[in-house]
């Protein structure tokens, strides 16, 4: 890859993980340096323009799955206008999905060379490492990342998680930590980054930390299933020594879930038991959005009212994208969206012999069961890796 291609890839991946804003906040609060103005224009607009100008001028552009993308956003827009008057329409879904697809398109058009995969892994892990490191140092009080501590309170009033108010979202950080573990496992198996065994294991432990520190239930389930699938596929290859080390790390991880750390007053076990019930707000979101879907199977009730119940007026949208989509736009938009996902990530088929394909597909579908699109921009990188894996003829040595 040429230097300019590496720089473009680095900037796009940095933007996917919100690093320009996060680093700007870090330097402003800790060293008094001004944040860079016009960040969307500098870190997304200019690179996107350069990439698209180059590929169009060379007539070597590629926009895979574009018709499936259009098949989702156009009918969604029509149904949104049908459901609500203009001043009540909400096109957040169109915006977030368009950005996810844009990141996907930009990266696959940067370079046609197979070596880009190595740099995608490298820059993604660097980005997540910076996010996790800053978040951890802020937890420990070493650095300042907010104008005041922002806490997420549990139902019983316990401080369950730290949030950085629009800078680093706890669930988003935990999800990227799980994604980093996935990339390290695949990189180790296929010798992509050629990290030493010790360094690889230390990084895995480091990237698991935000899941524990932020007490993220969704990311815990995603990571646990990812590890189980990986071990299942590699059970005949993993040595006895690695199995012992893996069991030790698993026991250590399990123990850490039940420990209250010195800066948290709640933990994952507490969140799974005391905070997970049918009366919890997120369960109400699922219940209300599915009820709205049953009452309006073909059109839903509009994006901004998908999770609004008859007796509960303060819940309007669901954090669970699948139920949100069903409640807002009906069955056909949901089917079109699943078709688009299938094109991006393939289908989770346990019979597939390639663990990479299975895990990427699983990771492409599963997070949207727990999170909305604003937290899942990094999945565009998984979509890129799936694309390169399928389009082998597209790669040039």
What layout of secondary structure does this protein have?
Blueprint: H1 3-16, H2 19-31, H3 39-57, H4 66-83, H5 92-108, H6 116-139, E1 150-153, E2 159-163, H7 170-190, H8 197-213, H9 217-234, H10 240-258, H11 268-273, H12 281-295, H13 321-329, H14 331-345, H15 355-365, H16 379-390
Antiparallel strand pairs: 1-2
Helix pairs in contact: 1-3, 1-6, 4-5, 4-14, 5-16, 6-7, 6-8, 7-8, 7-9, 9-15, 12-13, 13-14, 14-15, 15-16
What is the terminal separation in angstroms? 10 Å
Order of helices and strands: HHHHHHEEHHHHHHHHHH
Strand count, sense and barrel status of the largest sheet are: 2 strands, antiparallel
- What is the oligomer described by this structure? single chain
Describe this structure in words.
There is one protein chain. The chain has a two-stranded antiparallel ribbon. The chain contains 16 helices and 2 strands. It folds into 2 domains: 62-110 and 277-397, no CATH class; 116-275, no CATH class. It has 397 residues and is mainly alpha-helical. The longest helix has 24 residues, at 116-139. The protein starts with a helix and ends in a 7-residue tail after the last helix. Strand 1 (150-153) and strand 2 form a beta hairpin.
Supply database-style keywords:
globular; 62% helix; 2 strands; disordered C terminus; two-stranded antiparallel ribbon; 2 domains; 397 residues; mainly alpha
Concise overview:
The protein is mostly helical and 397 residues long. It contains 16 helices and two strands.
């Amino acid at each position: 890859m040429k230097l300019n291609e590496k720089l473009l890839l680095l900037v796009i991946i940095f933007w996917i993980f919100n690093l320009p804003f996060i680093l700007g906040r870090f330097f402003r609060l800790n060293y008094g340096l001004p944040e860079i103005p016009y960040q969307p224009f500098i870190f997304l607009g200019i690179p996107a323009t350069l990439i698209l100008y180059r590929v169009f001028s060379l007539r070597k552009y590629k926009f895979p799955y574009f018709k499936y993308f259009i098949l989702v956003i156009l009918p969604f827009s029509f149904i949104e206008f049908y459901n609500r008057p203009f001043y009540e329409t909400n096109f957040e879904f169109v915006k977030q999905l368009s950005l996810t697809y844009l990141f996907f398109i930009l990266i696959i058009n940067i370079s046609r060379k197979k070596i880009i995969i190595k740099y995608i892994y490298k820059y993604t892990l660097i980005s997540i490492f910076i996010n996790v490191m800053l978040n951890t140092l802020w937890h420990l009080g070493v650095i300042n990342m907010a104008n005041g501590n922002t806490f997420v309170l549990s139902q019983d009033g316990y401080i369950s998680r730290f949030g950085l108010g629009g800078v680093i979202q706890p669930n988003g950080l935990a999800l990227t930590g799980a994604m980093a573990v996935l990339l390290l496992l695949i990189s180790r198996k296929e010798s992509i980054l050629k990290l030493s065994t010790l360094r690889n294991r230390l990084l895995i432990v480091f990237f698991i930390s935000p899941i524990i520190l932020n007490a993220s239930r969704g990311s815990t389930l995603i990571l646990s299933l990812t590890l189980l699938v990986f071990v299942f596929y590699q059970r005949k290859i993993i040595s006895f020594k690695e199995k012992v080390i893996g069991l030790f790390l698993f026991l250590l991880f399990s123990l850490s879930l039940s420990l209250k750390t010195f800066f948290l007053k709640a933990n994952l076990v507490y969140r799974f038991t005391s905070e997970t019930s049918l009366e919890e707000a997120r369960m109400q979101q699922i219940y209300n959005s599915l009820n709205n879907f049953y009452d309006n199977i073909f059109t839903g009730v509009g994006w901004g009212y998908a999770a609004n119940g008859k007796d509960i007026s303060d819940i309007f949208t669901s954090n669970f994208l699948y139920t949100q989509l069903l409640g807002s736009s009906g069955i056909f938009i949901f089917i079109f969206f699943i078709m688009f996902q299938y094109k991006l990530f393939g289908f989770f088929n346990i019979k597939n012999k390639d663990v990479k394909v299975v895990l990427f597909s699983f990771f492409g579908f599963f997070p949207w069961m727990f999170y909305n699109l604003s937290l899942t921009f990094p999945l565009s990188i998984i979509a890129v890796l799936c694309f390169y894996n399928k389009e082998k003829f597209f790669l040039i040595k």
